[in-house]
């Protein structure tokens, strides 16, 4: 299993980091079998698994419930768990208690927090307490209602400069990696060059130290539309619906179950049954 220091080494050696989200036992098993470097139990859970409109309704208990299943499915992969909405914005003590629960109850290895500014002292406190932190800058979905929608961030020079500065501050606060979501590719290059911890991009182009995408998006599982930055490698949604349709049809037409799916009693026992 990789460690936080391995990700720093990968950046130095220009070896790209492949991160993928997972939310349960099978997705975690598949991610591990496919050799992803890091699994993220993202709070995108709220949207792709639980059917909410945003990540805002997701709770610490939701994250723990799912992260436990992920850990059982991927025993040999480094696992990062998202701290959900408002779980790292009260006191430092509240943040440490929430992150402590996430790490202790699930066996995951690190947490991810969105934003800089007031979040920096929480990143620092967690790192000091022995909990590795991934920062998350650019489009920060937990702030969607402040940002005014899911939009590319840092397109203007001033906003871009702020993001470069934020990234440096996240590194100073102790973060061992930074997710960059929906930022122009030129800006992700600037940020990646400005810091020594690896940048993991999503909608951030090629100039980063690694990529992260959502499990459901790359295999087309239960999602209707995917964002521009997603590459879909399969569409299993169609295969799944076709499989279920075949089952329904065969039940109605008595094509299922066949003899091979059925259990039998011995003849003499049958006689006993009829007296
Ligand atoms: O919740 C999530 O899936 C994420 C990534 C897409 C970065 O935060
Ligand atoms: Na997230």
Automatic annotation (TrEMBL):
Its cofactor is Mg(2+). It holds the Pfam family Pantoate_transf. It comes from the Bacteria. It is found in: Cytoplasm. NCBIfam families: panB, PRK00311.1. Belongs to the PanB family. This is 3-methyl-2-oxobutanoate hydroxymethyltransferase. The gene is panB.
